[in-house]
Design a protein that fits this description.
Length: 531
């Protein structure tokens, strides 16, 4: 049973990667950093080819996560290529995302093992079911945003703090030390907001006698200084800047200078009233029940509740800033569900509580299905570039006539990553022996152009450009110079038929759920060929 539950967690993360293999702009820095490390290597002569010098972003970010992901993926890439499982660079994108999903699934499995040991196997089972039926954490744990690189060490720390015998009141001092070091490393290197979680955990550990203040200070200083030295050395090299600490630069830019507010602000209550319900789905009410029923759950959730309260003081809010609380809330929800299914069944209340648990899980599955289906159709840029490659297969051209594709801003932001530049170098050394023979000839190389702020007049005037992935519907004037080859639709909204919903349940069943909730798409990108 234990192995089967772990496999379910891994399989859920992998399924989300395979169902939605494309990426969006918020994933691009780490994805392209992984691409560049994999393709070019890390020698000083290779750094000039890296994408972040062309598109640096508002603030520098650490390369450490991408470096580790690339190094872990390298032998897997070679093995997969040797077995014929990789045919192009897009397969590499899927593979590195599968590796990241695997690492984060491992962290969730460690928490499950700790939960089973402390709260019992049934609670561990319910934790697994709640986790895999949610949308955001399984969908995003294979996506290369900084928070997903931070998630693994945070989850390892959580598992260490939970792990103990059922009758033992305290975690071991060693577990607290390792958890403190991991959270310190994560805050210094990956995501500074983890400091707001580290503080309450350390405070709780001191007040409950898990560890002494002097040891906390010693662990914090040693792990903090080592982490700082690591990120400064690595990132100063990759960014070609002296004494660069990316997380401090981001903290200074977003918090001290208040630049994050330019991305929008939300009320202080937004995490409680909007983001947590969206992340947790039906785990939210069951976690409240677990909180009320079990002192151990109150101790577990205390630092996470304080964390959400502290981070609520910042004006700019996004769900990913609090993603670290989801596993802990799922533990609380599993404990609440465990109480619900354990009530005596000879009374109506016990029977109803028992039935609520599968109903809640079914609600999770229904919501996750709708969100996943919408997300699968929300990457028109990746779909457009893949369609372009299908329409124009690999072949050799005169250098003066080889395809030159301009990729619009919307396409670049919704999936047209560097890994989808299939018909142009670079290619990693591990993949070169297995390349299609045409791609080894320079005459087969395409040009992929992401120059921004070009008007249609500019694109038409540049005779080297042969194809466009355009984000504006072609007009009659555009049609004089360009032929529409294909269009790509993207998700707009879910349409609920209110008339059917207002009728009886039997009518809804007869009409079918597909008629009650309908996914609405519209054309968002157009593939154009010069006439």
């Amino acid at each position: 049973m234990s192995v089967a539950l772990d496999c379910i967690i891994f399989a859920t993360g992998w399924a989300h990667v395979l169902l939605a293999p494309y990426t969006k702009v918020e994933e691009s820095f780490n994805l392209h950093a992984t691409h560049d490390i994999t393709m070019y290597g890390i020698g000083s002569s290779a750094l000039g080819n890296y994408d972040h010098f062309t598109f640096p972003g508002a603030v520098p970010r650490t390369f450490i996560g991408s470096l580790l992901l690339s190094w872990i993926s390298d032998p897997i890439i070679e093995l997969a290529a040797w077995n014929g499982l990789i045919t192009d660079k897009f397969d590499l994108q899927i593979l590195v995302r599968l590796v990241l999903a695997t690492l984060n699934a491992l962290g969730l499995c460690l928490i499950r093992h700790s939960v089973s040991r402390r709260f019992g196997r049934l609670t561990g089972l319910l934790y697994t079911l709640l986790t895999v039926t949610q949308f955001h954490l399984p969908f995003w744990m294979g996506r290369t945003i900084p928070n997903m690189f931070a998630l693994l060490p945070v989850n390892i720390a959580i598992s260490l703090l939970i792990d103990r015998a059922p009758n033992k009141m305290k975690p071991s001092e060693k577990s607290v030390i390792v958890a403190t070091a991991l959270l310190t490393f994560t805050a210094v290197v990956f995501r500074a907001e983890v400091l707001l979680l580290l503080g309450p955990i350390v405070l709780q550990s001191i007040l409950h006698g898990y560890i002494t203040l002097s040891k906390v200070i010693k662990v914090g200083l040693i792990s903090g200084l080592l982490s700082l030295a690591l990120t400064v050395v690595v990132d100063s090299y990759f960014w070609n800047q002296s004494y660069l600490w990316p997380e401090f630069a981001g903290l200074y830019f977003n918090v001290y200078q208040g630049k994050s507010a330019e991305w929008g602000t939300s009320p202080r209550s937004a995490y409680w009233t909007s983001h947590l319900p969206k992340l947790l789905l039906t785990s939210l009410p069951m976690s409240l029940l677990g909180l009320l029923r079990d002192q151990r759950i109150r101790d577990l959730l205390f630092p996470f509740l304080i964390f959400v309260g502290l981070i609520s003081c910042l004006g700019h809010k996004e769900w990913r800033f609090i993603i670290y609380v989801v596993p802990a809330f799922n533990v609380a929800a599993a404990r609440g569900a465990r109480w619900m299914v354990s009530l005596p069944k000879n009374k109506l209340a016990g029977q109803m509580m028992f039935l609520y648990v599968p109903v809640f899980l079914a609600i999770n599955i229904a919501v996750t299905y709708m969100l996943t289906l919408a997300s699968v159709n929300n990457y028109p840029g990746g779909q457009a570039l893949a369609l372009l490659h299908q329409l124009y297969p690999q072949q050799q051209h005169p250098l003066s006539a080889r395809p030159h594709v301009h990729i619009s801003n919307l396409a670049a932001q919704t999936g047209a990553s560097l890994f989808l530049h299939l018909n142009a170098p670079p290619y990693p050394a591990t993949l070169q022996p297995y390349l299609h023979k045409d791609l080894k000839a320079r005459e087969a190389w395409w040009v992929y152009n992401k120059t921004e702020s070009l008007t249609m007049g500019d694109l038409t005037a540049n005779k080297r450009i042969t194809h466009l992935i355009a984000e504006h519907r072609p007009t009659a004037e555009v049609a004089r110079n360009w032929k529409v080859v294909a269009s790509v639709e993207g998700f707009v909204k879910w349409h609920l038929d209110a008339d059917i919903i207002r009728t009886r349940i039997s009518d809804v069943t007869r009409e079918g759920l597909g008629n009650v909730a309908r996914l609405v798409k519209e054309e968002q990108l157009w593939i154009l060929e010069r006439k």
